[in-house]
């Protein structure tokens, strides 16, 4: 298992490095943070010199990557302060604290939605597999197709309008924020302890989980149907074991191995969908920070956001691989 984890960590690190290079080069060549018209030519020259925007792109990437060790993600370009600062020496805003908080919000949103997906898809899939070829099975699959057909952003917008018709939206430092109370649920960036975070993230996580439950419930149903026809299930039933024990302890564990493998492969898409839900509900995750950084064309902040997104996806994928290894030890020893 240790060798398995080490290889996965090396793979995750190489992916993060490759993503950081591609993002820095792409944003560095396409965006010029000194371009806004509020800057006079002398101010534009100062910004370019301060952030070495005239250096070759590879030299800029090496300076940025080596600076991560000592200065974190650094500061935003001066335009992030809000137009032309009164003093050209005024530094930008620190990228690290806000980015780490946004990453924590996005990670909590994804993990909470995955909890909903695992519980919901397992319950629906086992229910449909136990009653396959009956009306309940057909109805469950029809609802699953309907849930998978609705885009996440559309469902999130409908839920937001339904539960909080009197919402208040605002832009703070270029970031979209939303504040509204809908009974126990609260829209906007999470505050407080675990209960406060749950109140803020429950609706976006549940909205994100609806489509995923619809997809993975079909996988669980198909895998359970195959396992229920295996000889070991017939032997367990012949021994007189309780039907619930046969379903949950024997068939379900084996049926979850391929489902967990599929889920770990699609974690990147799930993180992307979580950004859509975050943007609609204004949860203060990576989507909100990305929109703000894109608004003032800050290549350094945008690169940091993409890097943290890659770290989040790599970490979740590593967790999924470990879960598959625990469910089926043959995977970690192959």
Jot down its keywords.
3-stranded antiparallel β-sheet; 334 residues; 13 helices; single chain; MetI-like fold; mainly alpha
For CATH, the homologous superfamily of one domain is named as MetI-like
| CATH fold-level topology of one domain | MetI-like fold
CATH architecture of one domain, by name, is: Orthogonal Bundle
Based on secondary structure, the structural category is: mainly alpha
Terminal residue distance: 10 Å
Shape: globular
Q: Report the major sheet.
A: 3 strands, antiparallel
Following the backbone from N to C, one meets helices and strands in this order, namely HHHHHHEEEHHHHHHH
Overall pLDDT level = 77
In the predicted model, the low-confidence regions spanning at least 5 consecutive residues are 79-89, 170-174
Task: Report helical residue fraction.
Answer: over 70%
Find the count of extended strands (DSSP E, 2+ residues): 3
Widest β-sheet, arrangement of strands:
1-2-3
Residues in β-strands, percent: under 5%
Q: Note the total helix count.
A: 13
**Using only CA atoms, what is the Rg?**
24 Å
Q: CATH class of one domain, anyone?
A: Mainly Alpha
């Amino acid at each position: 298992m240790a060798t398995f984890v080490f290889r996965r960590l090396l793979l995750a690190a190489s992916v993060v490095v490759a993503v950081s290079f591609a993002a820095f080069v792409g944003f560095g060549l396409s965006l010029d943070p000194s371009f806004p018209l509020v800057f006079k030519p002398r101010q534009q020259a100062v910004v370019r010199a301060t952030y070495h925007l005239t250096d070759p792109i590879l030299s800029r990437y090496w300076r940025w990557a080596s600076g991560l060790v000592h200065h974190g993600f650094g500061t935003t370009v001066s335009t992030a302060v809000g137009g032309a600062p009164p003093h050209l020496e005024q530094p930008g805003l620190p990228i690290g604290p806000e980015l780490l908080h946004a990453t924590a919000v996005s990670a909590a949103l994804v993990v909470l939605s995955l909890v909903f997906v695992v519980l919901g898809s397992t319950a629906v899939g086992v229910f449909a597999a136990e009653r396959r070829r009956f009306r309940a099975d057909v109805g469950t699959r029809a609802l699953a197709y309907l849930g998978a057909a609705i885009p996440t952003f559309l469902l999130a917008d409908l839920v937001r309008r339904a539960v909080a018709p009197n919402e208040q939206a605002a832009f703070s430092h270029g970031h979209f924020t939303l504040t509204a109370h809908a009974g126990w649920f609260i829209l906007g960036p999470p505050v407080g302890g675990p209960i406060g975070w749950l109140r803020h993230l429950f609706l976006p996580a549940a909205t994100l989980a609806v489509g995923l439950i619809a997809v993975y419930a079909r996988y669980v149903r198909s895998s359970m149907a195959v396992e229920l026809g295996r000889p070991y299930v017939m032997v367990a039933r012949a021994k007189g074991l309780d039907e619930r024990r046969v379903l949950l302890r024997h068939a379900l564990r084996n049926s979850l191995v391929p489902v967990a493998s599929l889920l770990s492969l699609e974690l990147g898409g799930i993180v992307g969908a979580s950004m859509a839900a975050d943007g609609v509900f204004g949860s203060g995750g990576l989507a909100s920070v990305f929109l703000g950084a894109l608004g003032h064309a800050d290549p350094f902040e945008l690169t940091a956001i993409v890097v943290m997104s890659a770290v989040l996806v790599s970490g979740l994928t590593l967790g999924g691989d470990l879960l598959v290894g625990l469910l089926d030890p043959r995977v970690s020893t192959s």
